[in-house]
Amino acid sequence: MQITVTVNDQPYTREVEPRLLLVHFLRDELGLTGTHWGCDTSNCGACVVQIDAVPVKSCTMLAVMADGHHVTTVEGLEKNGELDPVQKGFTECHGLQCGFCTPGMMLTARWLLDNNPDPDESEIREAISGQLCRCTGYENIVRSVRWAAEHTCTPEVSA
Amino acid sequence: MTTSTPMGFGRMHRKEDARFIRGRGQYVDDVQLPGMLHGAILRSPHAHARILSVDTSAAEALPGVKAVITGETLAGLGLAWMPTLSKDVQAVLATDKVRFQGQEVAFVVAEDRYIARDALELIEVDYEPLPSVIDARTALAEAAPVIRDDLDGKKDNHIFDWEAGDRAHTEAIFERAEVRVSQDMLYPRVHPAPLETCGALADFDKVTGKLTVWCPTQAPHAHRTLYAMVAGLPEHKIRVISPDIGGGFGGKVGIYPGYVCAIVGSIVTGKPVKWMEDRSENLMSTAFARDYHMTGEIAATQDGRVQAIRVKVLADHGAFNGTAQPTKFPAGFFHVFSGSYDIETAHCEVTGVYSNKAPGGVAYACSFRITEAVYLVERLMDVLAYELGMDPAELRMKNLLRADQFPYTSPTGWEYDSGDYPRTLALAMEMAGYDKLRAEQAERRANGDRRLMGIGLSFFTEAVGAGPRKHMDILGLGMADGAELRVHPTGKAVLRVSCQSQGQGHETTFAQIVAEELGISPDDVDVVHGDTDQTPFGLGTYGSRSTPVSGAAAAMVTRKVRDRAKLVASAMLEVAPDDLEWTKGRWSVKGDPKHGATIQEIALASHGAVELPEGVEGHLDATCVYNPPNLTYPFGAYICVVDVDPDTGQVDVRRFIAVDDCGVRINPMIVEGQIHGGLADGIGMALMQLMAFDEDGNHLGASFMDYLLPTAVECPSWELGETVTPSPHHPIGAKGVGESATVGSPAAVVNAVLDALKPYGIRHADMPLTPSNVWRAIQGRPIRTDLAIT
Predict the structure, then answer these.
(1) Which pLDDT tens digit goes with each residue over B519-557?
(2) Are residues A72 and A121 in the same domain?
(3) Can you give the pTM of this predicted structure?
(4) Order of strands, sheet of B586-589, starting from the edge strand that comes earlier in the sequence
(5) Of A120, B10, B184, B282, which sees the most CB atoms within 10 A?
(6) Do A74 and B22 touch (CB under 8 A)?
């Protein structure tokens, strides 16, 4: 089947097998290997990307279902050479160790902050509760997201 | 958190983060080679069955399939079996029988991963199911089916008997002890479940004869040597590249059949072959941990002075004895089970048995079975406190080793290097507000509060940094680590080490070690690791050994360079070397500090035309091999506070206080991160993680829907404290920390839950303390945590 998917603001048209998973489409067809695969069962969230600005587990979605939609992956977080505050927060607060869950965690964090710019600790924990991290015990991920919240310049703030 | 880069030890951002936050890490599945094929493994649906026939013809006929490899194919190459890390053998692809559910039976190589999986469906295997051994306690029964009839003359499922300590002395103490308490406990089978599964990409170049294997291995050099030994390939023609690893925790130490299959697949097809296991394969077939059935006994005086501990262990090693530990120690370092206490004598007996489950045993941040040892002694201390009606903190404080007893030789022969245990426990109790917590608990109990509050302690002593060459080897390979440092003419440095990070931040920490010793910025030091063609030999990263062994090697090699720099500086400054003194980054003339040369100036001179003293070669580099004189002994005091709902059995971890002493901290930020992760592991193991089997050997924890791992909502905000007792024999006084929290925390959580359940007269219940197990314990119903309850 032919599909056209906009990934990180760039449209891609490809012929794909109908059963191809979105995660494999992104990784193997487009070479965007920042999106990881971890479990098959939608439990771990290593594969989280945003579809039309909503976090989705890309191992549980077929590539053809993304036809006509906008996908954002970790590679799309940095804009014009400027890191997203979430990316900076993960570095500042040691929010990652092995780095495998990090792209998915950051994309969920971005969604959270877009919808709730000042989340408290429990809201952050709930937002990432569909994703697993085996290294950090989550503490520094929570701090990283808080850091991003505190260092996001909204138009109101900068005005 | 931190903004400046220290010229050595201290908090600094991780160098590796720059690529990971951009999605630019390179894990094995990210590596793509031209013409690459994909492999997939057909696995056994049975726990124990005879293979009658394997028909691969339909699979081979599927368009896109390039090769189908069976045990028979491998047998023709002499590769059907491979040695394990415990000097047993393991089937690469089964030939005679399958011995656990999920065992490897056939390997398909195809154009893409979807076709490879399709082809698996087309392979027909005719099995004759056999009775299986699932409960280790039945493994030695007369009627038990013999699992390893491949071994010459094997008539039972016994692997080894091993003991440590003084049996007679221990028996004598027990005979006359005022108080004796015995407790059966199981440390159930768990799996480390790193987020990245295992996999390999093998590329055999027929022209050069060079084999390159990309594989997320924690021990790349050991893999290279083992491949050479197994496959008969010359070792210099094997290159193992361990790229970024998505977590290891011990599960990526050994060689798995899939790796060998990928290599054979590449040799057979002449193309690069990638094999990535899926999550179920990972949970069912790669190394598990624990599975220790323990009967512990503790002898004490009426006033709570512990005199002796003894334990009998039945160790379930699965279908092949594949545990990774130094050769001398079939039960790993379990015999450190006298723990942190001043105990006169101790004795343990361990019996290892085969069962129809996956092989493994030490694969989960356990420091070679110290997890089991700490759990045993810390549970026994609480059981004793329960029987004596003593506060568990008071009992511990009364028995902890005192600072003046170090170095201390334990009853089973360990030489603890340094410690001040009471100080560490006191700090944890102060941070927790221990007395207030007990007062709150008493008040809630008095008020008949429905929710049950529990406070649990554990105090652990680890033995890490394996290890001294004379005592420790794996398959004959000594456990010393090499390091190589080159300082370039402009004073920038490259450190090459043998160990391999799985997220521990070696690129940062090891650069800081060089920086500390050489007085240059860590930003000016690149750390190369994970490529056997580019790094010196060493045994890898596990058992918290990177900092104790490779970290020491990094410090020692930098000191060699510093000494060389001194000689060069003496030539530059035209003074005798003895007249020079070192201040960080600079050799200068004693008494005339303005007259000196920076390491950068010396680096340039050493590559330049300055006339060097007799016997001093040019350039500024060095190599070293560090053979640790002893293990290091990190320790810590943990306190967990829980609330238990008796109606549902739900446990909420309200607080967790962890005071760790890992000696000198190179990068405290990274150290704290390591501890955070291990504490979450403790909650997982204590409350939810379990590899259960039904009576036919079906794996009931083979996906993340069934094998539960803690998420952010089950974890509290960790409260960390520290004491610093440097290791006296380590060059920088560091002790290692990677596994401390995983070792120490499960006992604290379990002790907290059982403290909450004390009003019900419950002294012990096995992990995992899931809602249903807690509820059953409250109801007085039996709980089984090794097998599914039916």
Answers:
(1) 999 999 999 999 999 999 999 999 999 999 999 999 999
(2) no
(3) 0.97
(4) B580-583, B586-589, B592-598
(5) B282
(6) yes
